[in-house]
Design a protein that fits this description.
Strand content of chain B: 15-25%
Number of helices of chain A: 6
Radius of gyration of chain B: 14 Å
Structural class of chain B: mainly beta
Helix content of chain B: under 10%
Order of helices and strands of chain B: HEEEHEEEEE
Shape of chain A: globular
Largest sheet of chain B: 3 strands, antiparallel
Largest sheet of chain A: 6 strands, antiparallel
Largest interface: A-B, 42 and 38 residues
Distance between the termini of chain B: 21 Å
Oligomer: heterodimer
Chain lengths: 211, 135
C-alpha cells in the first residue's frame, strides 16, 4: 500500500458521486507506483473509447533532485496525442494545513473530472487551435462546473469541517478560492439539495452545518 | 513484442477485470519487465517493495518515458531502470494499454521481491542487484 493510499480512499467517494471510478484497486488500496510517482487515477469510461480521467500524482520527494509535489490532471483518451489539462500543482506538497490540503485536492480532482469531460466534448479542430498548456481553455465556452459536480464539491466542504457553520456566501467563497468555477445560484441549489437529502442540516436561514 | 494471441486489455480495464498472468515468462518471450526510476530513487527498490507497481516490457529512451508512460512532466525523465525477472514475479495482471500514452504495461499488484531484481553484472547470483542507467 502506498503512503497516500488512505488519502486516495477518502477522495474516492467524492469522485464516484461525480460519475468516476478508481482505475486500479488492490485489496481496497487505490493506485500504485508508476515509475517513480504515486499515481491515483479515476476514470469515466465512454463507449467510444474517449475515456475521461482525473489523476492525482504525488512525487516520492525527499531525495536530492527530486521535488516533492502533488499535481492534479484531467485528461481524455485519444491515443498518443491525448489532450490533458493541469488543474493544480502544489510544491512543496505539505505547505498548507493538512485539512486544507485534502480539501483542495478534493475540489481539484472534481475540477479535473469536469475539465476532462469538457475536453471530450470539444470539437477536435477547435482543440488543435487552442494552446494545450492553457489551464482554462476559454474556447470551451463554459464558465462554471456542472451542477452535479458542484453538489459533490459542496458536500466535500461540509465533510471536511462538519462542525463549522457555513453561510451560503462562505461556501461560494471557499470553492472559488480553490479554483472551482461555480456561482451563487448553483451553490444555493446544492445547499438546498444536500439539506433535503439529509447530508447537511440547517442551523438557521442561510446557514448550514454537517450532520 | 508480446507473443502472438496475447490479448492486451483496453486502457479503462481496472485491476479487478484484468487477467492474472499465469505464464509471464512465456508471454514475454524471454524478456524482462522494466521499472523506470529517477536518479534520486536509486537504491530504494533493490530490496523489493510491497507497493503496487506499474511496469512495462518496452524499452524507452529517457525523454520518451514521460509521454509513453503517462508521467507528470514535472517529475523529470527516467534515466535509470530496474530489470525484473518474470520468473520471480507473482500477482501479475495485464497486459494493458497505458492510458493516454500508447505503451503496454503490466501491474505487479503486490510489488516484487529482491530476488526479482536482475543482476546488473555477471558475478555470483544476487550480488549485483542494482539499477542500470538508460543510455
Amino acid at each position: 500500500m502506498t503512503p497516500y493510499a488512505e488519502l486516495a480512499r477518502r477522495l474516492s467517494p467524492h469522485l464516484e458521486r461525480a460519475g468516476l471510478r478508481p482505475l486500479d484497486v488492490w485489496r481496497d488500496a487505490i493506485g500504485g507506483d508508476r515509475h517513480g510517482i504515486y499515481d491515483y487515477t479515476w476514470v469515466s469510461p465512454h463507449p467510444d473509447g474517449r475515456h475521461c480521467y482525473a489523476s492525482l500524482f504525488i512525487s516520492h520527494g525527499g531525495g536530492e533532485g527530486s521535488p516533492e509535489f502533488a499535481e492534479v490532471w484531467g485528461a481524455v483518451e485519444e491515443g498518443p496525442r491525448s489532450p490533458t489539462t493541469l488543474v493544480l500543482h502544489l510544491e512543496p506538497m505539505f505547505s498548507d494545513a493538512v485539512w486544507d490540503l485534502e480539501l483542495r485536492l478534493q475540489v481539484a480532482m472534481l475540477e479535473a473530472a469536469r475539465r476532462a469531460e469538457l475536453l471530450r466534448r470539444a470539437d477536435a479542430a477547435e482543440r488543435a487551435k487552442a494552446d494545450p498548456r492553457a489551464p482554462w481553455p476559454k474556447w470551451l465556452g463554459m464558465e462554471r462546473a456542472p451542477y452535479r459536480v458542484t453538489v459533490a464539491a459542496v458536500g466535500a466542504l461540509f465533510e471536511q469541517e462538519p462542525e463549522r457553520i457555513w453561510r451560503n456566501s462562505e461556501v461560494l467563497t471557499a470553492l472559488l478560492e480553490r479554483d472551482f468555477r461555480t456561482d451563487r445560484t448553483h451553490v444555493n441549489a446544492a445547499l438546498s439539495l444536500l439539506y433535503r437529502v439529509g447530508v447537511i442540516r440547517r442551523v438557521r436561514r442561510g446557514a448550514y452545518r454537517g450532520v | 513484442m508480446l507473443l502472438a494471441r496475447t490479448a492486451i486489455a483496453p486502457v479503462d480495464a481496472d485491476l479487478s477485470s484484468l487477467p492474472r498472468v499465469a505464464n509471464l515468462p512465456d508471454q514475454l518471450g524471454g524478456r524482462y519487465l522494466l521499472r523506470y526510476l529517477l536518479r534520486s530513487q536509486l537504491g530504494t527498490l533493490t530490496s523489493g517493495t510491497s507497493d503496487t507497481q506499474f511496469v512495462t516490457p518496452t524499452p524507452y529512451a529517457p525523454e520518451e518515458t514521460i509521454s509513453w508512460l503517462t508521467l507528470p512532466p514535472a517529475s523529470g525523465s527516467r534515466e535509470w531502470v530496474l530489470l525484473l525477472d518474470p520468473n520471480q514475479l507473482t500477482n501479475v495482471y495485464g497486459p494493458r494499454w497505458v492510458r493516454l500514452g500508447g505503451g503496454v504495461e503490466y501491474i505487479l499488484a503486490s510489488g516484487f521481491s529482491a530476488e526479482a531484481v536482475v543482476d546488473a553484472a555477471t558475478v555470483p547470483k544476487g550480488s549485483a542487484r542494482w539499477e542500470i542507467e538508460v543510455r
